[in-house]
Amino acid sequence: MHKFWLPSLQRTRFFSIRHLSCMQNGRVCPCSGTKSIDNKPTESEKPLRWGMAPVSLIADDFVTALQVLSDRHHMVTACTSYYQSVARTFANKHNIPHVYSSFEDLARSKDVDVVFISSLNPFHLEISRLMLDHGKHVLCEKPLCMNEDQVIQLIGHSHSKGCFLMEGIWSRCVPAYQYIRKQIEAGALGEVVKVNCTLGLPMQKVVRVMRRSLGGGVTLELGVYALQFAMWAFGYAPHNVIAHGKLNEDGVDEEANIVMKFGPEREAEIMLSCTKRFDNKAVIKGTKGA
């Protein structure tokens, strides 16, 4: 399990159950409110049953994190993998009762309500559509899809099926986000006018990041965190984006400098690299301070 998860699991357990409780009983809840983790389920309520498609390192982290929550609310009931032996090893480790030999079999399972998808990026759309086709709610690892057209298609498909669809931006579940949001809404920063963010890690040995065919690139690997943070801070999408960077020999972006224009004198500057280590900081500047 990655070390950065450990300190935050206990702090995020309440926020996590709030986000996911609106899928209780296998349906999307239209309410704007949320349930407390201490609420006892009624007789008609059943735990949300999760499937892992496929098993992976991040799926291992996710299942470990779910174990912080009560099995009255969440339980992992199924998994699959490209290799049956890998799925069985994963199931034995986490006491998962059902192991399926294909994504199709998991999608058809009556023992699964929602599926966590952590495949390679190019397969997110295909697997998500498959699960939605069978009435399964979907929590898909970032990036949700490879491009805007695919995202629009997938969102429309989830609406047509009446199923929950969410991109797995784990940082959004960190309590610090909620604290910052309260400060912004309370006017502590004044009007947000600038966001600066740097994200850089040496990842040359991570094959999936450096290969075009595997959906690689620093923007999809790290940049999504910075881009969503900027839009979250301003509260709306930019009207203009200017980007330049550096491609590796496979045509994958290994460096990117992005400027997002949100209005007159309102912008975000983002620096990304998967070959260099940056200070990895995000700063929100307002008319009253940062």
TrEMBL record:
Known catalysed reaction(s)? (1R,2R)-1,2-dihydrobenzene-1,2-diol + NADP(+) = catechol + NADPH + H(+); D-xylose + NADP(+) = D-xylono-1,5-lactone + NADPH + H(+)
State the EC number(s). Answer: 1.1.1.179, 1.3.1.20
Sorted alphabetically, the keyword list is: Oxidoreductase
Top EC class of this enzyme: oxidoreductase
Q: What is this protein called?
A: Trans-1,2-dihydrobenzene-1,2-diol dehydrogenase
Lineage per the UniProt record: Eukaryota, Metazoa, Ecdysozoa, Arthropoda, Hexapoda
Name all Gfo/Idh/MocA-like oxidoreductase N-terminal domain ranges: 50-168
Residues of the GFO/IDH/MocA-like oxidoreductase domain: 177-289
* UniProt xrefs under InterPro entries: Gfo/Idh/MocA-like_OxRdtase_N, Gfo/Idh/MocA_domain, GFO_IDH_MocA-like_dom, NAD(P)-bd_dom_sf
The entry sums up its family as follows: Belongs to the Gfo/Idh/MocA family.
One of the entry's Gene Ontology molecular-function terms is: trans-1,2-dihydrobenzene-1,2-diol dehydrogenase activity
Q: Which domain of life is it from?
A: Eukaryota
